[in-house]
Fold these 4 entries.
Entry 1:
Amino acid sequence: MKIHEYQAKEIFTAFGIPVPRERVAANPAEAAMLAPELGMPVVIKAQVLVGGRGKAGGVKKVESADQVEVVAKNIIGMDIKGLRVNKVLVSECVDIKGETYVGIIIDRATRAPVLMASAAGGVEIEEVAKATPEKILKVAIDPAAGLLSFQARNVGMALYGDAHCPTGAAEAKLAREFAGIAQKLYRIFLAKDCSLIEINPLVKLGSGSLLALDAKINFDDNADFRHKEWEEMRDLSAEEPTEVEAKAAGLTYIKLAGNVGCVVNGAGLAMATMDLIKRYGGEPANFLDVGGSSSPEKMVTAMRIILSDPNVKAILINIFGGITRCDDIANGLLAAQKMADIKVPLVARLTGTNAEKAREILKGSPVTSAETMGDAVKKAVALAGGAK
Amino acid sequence: MSIFVDKNTRLIVQGITGRDGAFHAKAMKEYGTNVVGGVTPGKGGQQVEGLPVFDSVEDAVEKTGANASIIFVPASFATDAMYECIASDLDLVVCISEGVPTMDMVKVLDYAKGRKTRVLGPNCPGVISPGKAKVGIMPAASFKPGCVGVVSRSGTLTYEVASQTSEFGQSTVVGIGGDPVIGTNFIDCLERFNADPETKAIVLVGEIGGTDEERAAEWVKANCRKPVLGFIAGQTAPPGKRMGHAGAIISGGSGTAPEKVKAFEAAGITVVYEPDEIGPKLRAKL
């Protein structure tokens, strides 16, 4: 789960990481009211759960107080990569002397958290990682010992020191300040069950101290059982409504652009089914995993969600029964057909637990049955209008 | 032979008094797995499916000589259940539970370092050595004894793939789980399959996200003496979206299917694009 910059900065403040003086506004008038107390000029920043807002025109510096409302009006309601901007952050302008990057993620390969830092701050770290991986400093964090002071300080020395000169008092002070911020970041990472936390850029001010100009936090969804507060922080406007509905029903649904709907049990098999649709010249309309246990009710919800997408021209049901029982799926299909007048053709490939029973149940129904996954996909692609 | 589990496996079921634990304890016992008991703290002394229930793993090990465990408890209790197995020096713990926080898993695996226990999972279907032992939730009918080793990040896709190898049967099928941080990875399984005389060919089922497949490919190139087939799920997955499995996400431009396929090809792994191709391609190799 992603949270907005202003929410991440509230957490930063609670943990003692310095941020600019700033306030969040939900409408242009509110933004105009907040600006004077911060002092002009101000920066107005779109709050949107996607990167690249600067390039999209979602961050603007405003010189005079009477322009704030106009600029805020332009940004609120703006569409950035398909997401609507609902709030802006009105922030004081700070005197920037340098920009660095610092972040923490879990490295899957070493199975440990890793502190990443780069003197090339302000740009997307993925781009730095691709073009000049040597510019990213990485320090593995021992899960038992935590991020140690010397580790964080050494990264700070590398960021702010000069390899050709002896380290001076100013550099050492910055390195220590950096170490403090990095250790606070790790404290947040643990306490809030983050999957990612980053400051980009971490700026050096004219006064010689450091400040988090931006903030990004993603939470580890698996930890939601011990963070009831996340529900209130969630921005549902950034999520596909059908995906939210699916989640509530215990399904995982992701909308895509094609016309062959699919209902599959298991994430791996669901991805493989989508791939095969594409391979036979079709386009998958969605990813849908009905999960381990399947009740007929779940199938009804799954069918309704898929059919809410007007692009869907055929639906493929691919089930390899284990815990999932094929007869439950078949009963669910019939129930869905009764409840909603399904106009698109259905192709079902049901194998594994209780497949025989399922075949009996579907006998005489308009559902086209298929023996293998390949066979089922070919039939569904043909029924959706054929290969492109 | 086979890997990880066989006739010497003496299994306990953590969470045996729960619905899933009881159901699968019975199914594994019926399959022929040597299930020796179960553990639910506070329910010691009870019986489930004719199996004795103990209050702790330590107690179960002392009374039954158990050397492996399978976990069916909710995610919030799963890490404690794994620690308990590691502290009792079991050979293997299989965590079926899904939804374990990633950082919790990091700490469990850090604790396991230098100790005896192999952790498989979490969020995995388990492991089966057909005809010998099933320590997992897979439908038994999809597997039969034979010579193909299968290792996969998925659940049902593993059953699909295994059923495509039925002409040859399987030595062992391992589902390593779809989470970002897991106890047993591809290379752990490849090493064992490579050394297992019963395994004649290996099928590796990967998916988008992370770089485990790439590292497995490098290992195969340098070490593997047996034919390897590789399949990658998620060719059509959009970037930035979590495709069900917590680990199946293309982020920052890495973890894509084409990168993994390229790594497979460079390592001499035969790439398979649909399950139906697995049988014929294995036939060509065996």
Entry 2:
Amino acid sequence: MESPTQARWNPWKRSATRRNDVNEIAEQGDGRDEEGQFVRPASVEALFRQSYTSIVQSLALAGGDLAAAEDATQEAFAQALMSWSRISRYDNPGAWVRRVAINKLHNAHRSRLRGETAVQRMNSESSTASSTGEPESDLVLGLQRLPYKQRVCAVLFYLDDLSTAEVADAMGISQGSVSQHLNRARNALRAHLEVTP
Amino acid sequence: MTIDERISAELRRHAPVVDEQVAWDRIRSAAPVRRRARAMKLVAASLGSFVLVLLGFILSPYLSSDSDPAADAASPFLGTWVSSDLVDGTTATLVIRALEDGNVEMVMHDDVAFYQIVEDPLGWVCSGGAATTTGTGGLQAENELVFPAPVATCDDQPVEGLPPPVEVLESLTFTHDPGTDTLTDNLTDNSETTWTRIDAELTSPWPIWPQTNLEEVREAQELADAGDPDYTWQLGGESWYQPSQNHTNDSELFARFLEEELGWEEFLWDHAVPHSEGVSYIRCAPDLTNPLYPTDPEGSGCAPTIDELRYETVKIRVAQLAGQGPSGIWVVTGWEMVEPFAQADPRVVEAEATALLEDFLQARIDGEGAEGLAAPPEDHQLSDELADREIPLLYATSSGARYERSEFEVVDGPVWPEGRMQFEVRLFAQGSDTVVEQVFSLQPNETGRLGLVYEFEPATTQNGMAMPVEYAFLDGEVTYRAASPLEPSDDGYREWDRLAIVGLLPDDDAPRRVLLFLADPRPVGPDCVEGPAPADAEALARSIGSDPDFEATAPVEVTIGGTPALQMDVVLARGASSCSWSEPQVSGTSPLLLKHAPVFLGHDRARLYLVDLPGGSVRVLTIAMITDEDSFETVLRWAAPIVDSIEIHTS
């Protein structure tokens, strides 16, 4: 089905005097695509280009399931696209998307408990992403054996370079808990580094 | 390189490759579908409010209903309302007033609106501009107000000289909830917008501080936009979107209002009594230590102002009237003194707690009547797994010895302001040879009355040994007992059909999965494709035994929970293919069995118990202990009591 971004040109223009974020979005490239159509969530795409890959990579490493990480992240971006007038006002929309994606991944994981989604997943098309092709490292395998929160803390901290405060915000837990999870994850992963110098 | 740098580098090296373009196409195609789904009739997004506020003022003299019976019936709808849950999360304003003919008239305004035309899903009206919707309607049912054909008008003129676009909507309906005095509408199909009444007393005059009218607010917004420090202090942050929930005690707007307008010198955000429609502050007596909580970290610095217990309490409302988001300034739009907040008297709390504990412990010694004096927590993180939510060893030790005496000590509290306390209880039996220790909390229940609550953590101990707790798996078809430090995991491996028992064992530096329960596990075949779940334990054992990727011992007949079972030890064969972590895995889909890298590594060994569950909701229960060779015996030793405690409850 055709999406609004592919719809016919809507001739109504916006007030030039109104001050709001939508205006700012519209002013980026005039807010229209090459065919002159109104493309409101242009900044979502910018946000997507900026952060999609890193979010998927971190969730894939944390959850051990690339397809699930893609699903969760794409759903989070779709939600951002729908609610961009609100999300765009946040200080860090990327942090919002990351947090939503983490929650969705966790919820999706829990909702699979009775196998319904598993069946759907088995019948769905395969993931569009591929692994690096690198042999699995002991460290990555060791990461998968950590408790869930330790895994998420570790990838956000080590892969995404988030501060402990940012990790806490993304996970909705206290900074002290993050430090505790990170410390345990670091101790556990250290052993795997020693066999992979 | 440091350890941290090496971990980072290794994770980066193994991060998966991601196809952005395909993903973006999916997102773009998915979002409009969802948007349409939510907006069969119309989607109204955020709203601002100058026009509405002005309308509110203009219409306010007419808001009171006259004596007309029809208007009287519609009176619950009359007034000014603010939406709280529109699609993009911001607020809109709605004014409903009575007409002389008995009908009612509505004016709804939003500053950033997206109207979607029903007949043309690709037709969008206003596209983010301001819109005003007006209509005339009447009661359709007791609590249902219908506007048959309201007209939505985009406030902006699309092209100079042309009239603004207009869309006629279908049967806009508002439903009034008398219990909460809120309205819901049918603007969106899949989600309801809730409208909250603006208290006229609180909003008149509106705005009130520090600007005194809307024009001043607009001018202040422009100056704040320009960075004028005289106005930028009115800016909030991201958390200010819900000031009543994401509040901090150092918000300058509130602080200055309290100091400059109300003359309060010291105050505290009343987090204990959050209000959905405003932020509450309590007033603290200046330069006084709270005499009832002199050492409490938070409460010691806030002494009551009314009497020994009560504080002057104010509820404050704030709003952004000239711009939304972090760049919009906030103003106080209303305030009122509310019922004074009262701290608990720690002397009373301690006396009540002592009496309660003494009664409770005496009842346990007497052997009856203790059940009603303490309870497990209403919500516990392991509530779904606990097979038995009763207080353990209530009247006797594990050997059945009755208690002879007791003692308790305060571990924590009373904590300001509710007076929460925590106690460690000891019960003695067999001439004090046996000591049972438990921790109880004194917490307010739903009615505010303090009651004793048994905390499952820390665990009950008997002579220093943690007592096992009974848990359930497969909705109670399988029960087992585990003692601290082992318990069902909260690490994401706790589902209906799979469960890990996890704990931090002595000498370990991280929690370890000691045992896995898997319901109808599916063997993993070539190319990491999972096969169907075997029909019974014997078939599963054959599948494992014939898999060239495994070296497995021959199945040995054992008994688990009184049910015949098969025991096997399994390791990965040299050169065996291990499934990639990025493939569907145990925690991601239905339970796979072995050959899966995160669970089963090349240097690991597994002890499996395969149990038929005739009459159960699944066919085969697999109990797996998987760990590296060095830890194998240790894990078996810790898992053994759990395995021994398993009971099967299928027919």
Entry 3:
Amino acid sequence: MAPRARIRWRLRQPSVIPGFGLALGVTLTWLTLIVLIPISGLLWRSSGLGWANFIALTFDERTVNALAISFGTAFVAAIVNLVFGVILAWVLVRYRFPGKRVIDAMIDLPFALPTAVAGIALTTLYAPNGWIGSLLEPLGIKIAFTPAGIVVALVFVGLPFVVRTVQPVMEEIDKEVEEAAATLGANRLQTITRVLLPGLLPAGLTGFALAFARGVGEYGSVIFIAGNLPYVSEIAPLLIVIRLEEFNYAAATAIATVMLFLSFLMLLVINTIQSWSRRRYSNGA
Amino acid sequence: MALDIGTTSTSAPSTPVRAATSETRLARATLIALALGFVGLFLLLPLATVFIEAFRKGAGEFLAALGDPETFSAILLTLTVAGIAVPLNLVFGVAAAWAIAKFEFKGKAFLTTLIDLPFSVSPVISGLVFVLLFGANSALGPILQSYGIQILFAVPGLVLATVFVTFPFVARELIPLMQEQGTSDEEAALSLGATGWQTFWHVTLPNIKWGLLYGVLLCNARAMGEFGAVSVVSGHIRGETNTMPLQVEILYNEYNFVAAFAVAALLALLALVTLVLKTALELRYSDEIAASRRH
Amino acid sequence: MEVRVQNIRKEFGRYPALEDVSLDIRSGELIALLGPSGSGKTTLLRLIAGLESPTEGTIFFGNEDASNKSVQQRNIGFVFQHYALFRHMTVLDNVSFGLKVRPGNRRPPAAEIRRRALDLLELVQLSGLEKRYPAQLSGGQRQRVALARAMAVEPNVLLLDEPFGALDAQVRKELRKWLREIHDRTGHTTVFVTHDQEEALELADRVVVMSKGAIEQVGTPDDIYDHPVSPFVYGFIGQSNCLEVTLSRGEIWFEDRPIGLRAASEPDGPATLYFRPHDIELIDGCGGCLAGLVTAGRRVAGTRHLEVSLGRTLPPVEIELPPERASSTDHSRVAFRPTRWKLYRGASDVAAASVQAQTSAIELAPTGT
């Protein structure tokens, strides 16, 4: 990486604005130091494991379980957030009710609240002697210390994503299109499902992808409520930490690499679905 | 034009017909109930729990918990780490936004993707990469140790991990904003004879000040609240390398619930203040923050 | 299907958009609601559609009171100014939409829906485009899809809200002709809103001139143009000149001289004289005329428009002459007299006149051209 030398020739158009060299230089230096070197370090370490070792570590039963739990719970939580996120966005954009402004602002709470705080609060609520846990206990439903608890925590963490990506799109909905559907005889449900929701699909999928990605990597809010039983409620990031504490750097590296790779793959799949849906559902939008 | 009509009425229809583009009252009420229930259950209840548990044994216990020396040093450490990480990322963010927004060059898209990287990486992995880089069996670790420089399990490591995790915030806020603002103001200043720095200080900075504040706000909230990445590099050395979130974990695992929630309540308060300021900025300065202020 | 609007009043909050409007629309006619913005024409259209509900009054579709019917139940077809096509659906899906959302017992089978939609696309001359998306069509094509979509449900009444307002002038002209043809072929009762009087006069069987929430006049284009009942209508339709005159013993006087026109049965006093630029004759000498100095002239299509100043403090008057006659009159004095004209008494800016005009309109036979 040669950050600062010979910057001029890389400009597409000559610019009278000064500071390009300096700005780009600072940017690239910082990025290199903080991002590129560490990440390459991980990948380099990972490749140093040797293929056979890597496979063995990756397909270790406990690892596979942890990955399955991480990705599985993140998926379920993202689905929940998709459904309720759309409802929330709808209600916030279209209806008026007391406290709407406050609720709208609170949607961003998971962005602002430290994950550890969320973690202990949720655990306290859903533990068998917690407010909600104690209500569900007699029904035989356990949330805390089970994968269900993980889903709850990930719903919290991912809540703003769908709402915030869908809200601006909903605000742009053309009232005349709704009226057109009504004049053609569509009742309200038909108008919403056939005309309005398809237009929201690309934004909804984006929000889903963001919530899902966030959920897969989440640590702080999950480890308190999860119970962390291996093979049952142990998430992949926790397994990485455990391996690190065992000084098993190889295993930690392998799991991290696999997580990165799987997330990358997942994002690719979702991006493809997104561009498909954008082409299909919001042509010319 | 006499049509045979049964009833002629000039008064308003007795059953007013619902507007074409709204749902039944029942549907509306149900949706609102669902939405509020969801928000109440997943957002408000946990938030309330933090404060209720913190004060469960009264204000005295609450204050005593905060005054505990380990906890107090955790608070100081959090402030220190954030105090270093946020300004660093501020400078970076401004530099990155300046380069990306005011110039056209190859690799811009790649750069932007790179800047977004920490958002897509698990915090634990963010910490792991530094352990691999500076840990006992890495290349750099022992070298630095021989010079007496301790990265991991010390403040520098905490700062590094925090910087990694929070550096996109300011940049992501400023880039679309500065792109929207274009280069005409700066070009005007330059044509009037201002130097680059003068242009930056007197023209660019005032234009972006609210976006900058917004980005710093989010960056700070994340910096103070970061858990996963910091947990990996900290070593959990009480009184030395425990930030507030880590301290919360320790206290909680020791079943010292009131103390844990007391520290948590402080952090929650910070979160609420952040939210209030964020909303205030969005409401008053929405054009000056960015078109894409909702991320 | 006839539509009867009876004593409709519509208020938005405190703002009265329509005041005591009544109108009978005959089955199968093409009727235009014409007026400037704020006249209430779009509000009236939307009330007929059911997209708004009246504050007072009733609307009848045939013999039935439509007030208790939702917009879905009224079976109307509505075409919006900005098309309001469903962006994520193909052209075919757009046109089929109204048929697909019908409840089970009234919904035709899928093959039938497809056939009908394709037939309609052929009618609007868009065959072959059924798989395209709205974003891939021009404005004119989109509007034709919108019309096909509205017609697919076999509406009682077709309602068009400034349908050509968003299109280029050329496309507008083409679509105007085309709409008339479609109407003649299908026979739907059609109501369309426009602020373009040329469009209204060219297209409609009858024109409803509206202003400030009330109907000024209803009539055929000839009626409206040749026999306007109020100053507003006279001034809004076509071009007109307007002079403050005085009546004295049946003679019409302008400023300090008679202009050679008589209104025998009229009492003395002030009045307003309206005449159109092309309804004048030049006079040599002046035994009762309007005279003034030509201040400007320009060629417009096959005639010459002259601006004549009748006096320093007065606004100029426009007259139209065939080019041969006009050539000798540039920058010189000209004397002329209106051949067709109308006199109105009372305030010339009459607020909220209904069809039963409050100003008395005096009409005299033309004195020859």
Entry 4:
Amino acid sequence: MKKIAILLLAAALLFGCAAKDDPNAVFVDPNAIQGGGYGELYFEADGVRFGMFDEAKPVLEALPAYRSTFTEESCAFDSADVSYFFSGYRIMTNEIDGVERITAIVCTDDTVRTPQGLYIGMPEADAAAAFPLLQQNDWNLVDGTALLSVTVQDGSIVSIVYSPSNAED
Amino acid sequence: MKRKLLTAGGVLLACIVFFGVLAAASRLVAPKYHDALIEGHLTGEYYGEPSPHDVLFVGDCEVFEHFSPVVLWNEYGITSFIRGGAQQLVWHSYYLLEDALKTETPKVVVYNVLALKYGEPQSEAYNRLNLDGMRWGTAKIGAIRAGMTDGEDFMSYVFPLLRYHDRFDKLTQEDVRYWFKDGGPVSFKGYVMHAGVNPATEVPSDPHETQLPESSMAWLEKMAALCEEKGISLVLIKSPSIYPQWYPEWDAQIEAFAKSHGLRYDNMIEKSDAIGIDLNTDTYDQGQHLNVYGAEKLSVWFGRELQTQYDLPDRRSDAALAEEYAKLSDRYEAEKQRLITEDN
């Protein structure tokens, strides 16, 4: 009987040691769920300054009315990315701990210039001269909770995206 | 001697009890995917099929929500099944196809190409949805090995208790209800029905690579070779949903692949008008997936194309099949009415 108990205990320990996180759980860095931690990597439009993990509601209320919204559904899980389309850019939000927060800002055409001075269509040489660190870091910059990713194709910038610096690919 | 026998018997009994408890506990904590996260139930439903199929669909949500085997039967007498799953990536599709071809040889395999945009494993959660219900064999082993994300381990697929033991305190009535029995199919030969209407509007355009990953194209190559080896016609499709985006560069790449392999490729986004798809009424989530009205239109169009090009037989005169599909049609219509009532 003692042997059986030891066997069962060993099995329990084995399974306990092999514990892993729930695959359905959404990855959230507890240090990153408050807004304002993006340092210099903020976005600004119509006099409203905002960035990663800022609460979406006051930002959306302060900005002019968005053109349309799109809710990207997950194929099976209850996690939705919501996009708000504005002229020249798009804000994406997710609900984190019951609060809708900004989780991406995407420039969509050449009518907007980021506070850092970047714009779609900007010549690669100009961007490299103005932001040598950006070019040296494979066109990515991190500041606190924010990651600025720039895509350069055929000698000019074709996309500018702000996303969480801790986001999983 | 007697004492030794008694000891051996005791050890044997202990082992039986131990592994019995282990197996029962394993079944209890493993997700049932019947009342919630039903996409995880789809893979296993294939094994309950009573008859072979002329057409097998493989791919992601753009097959299991976009094609209705009931319509293919009712309109053309085509027998079909959808081996599709949520974020079913190309290696999943390859091995699910390989698994199916061990027991049947359809005339046509239809593969939806959207998932080719992923060249690397994406998510353990989706791996589980697609693979937990797969029967054990070389195909499942290959699928697990090909798709594991960082941190996953093979043994947790062999012994689900290793993975799901932390669900002990999260068990639901569903877990108990389906502990030792399956609750029956949640799909209609792999088709998952939605009847809501949420019109398409503007969709995001994201930064993307100009070419589909080499790794996913290599799996497509393997799939083409597997079909060729079995004498099966492989048809490539891009379902007519508008998000996630299917970019022109990718389309050209698949067009070239199809041409070089002598395969048919239908970009159904471009053919939406001819098919009759109206994304004001035929989608339940702004153009990402079709609802049942869209799926039925698409199935009527595609069934005609398949029957014409691949000379598929009309099997409606087969009494056994007619009976099987009549029962399925009844269940299908009842579910459609239920969903329509629910949505209103």
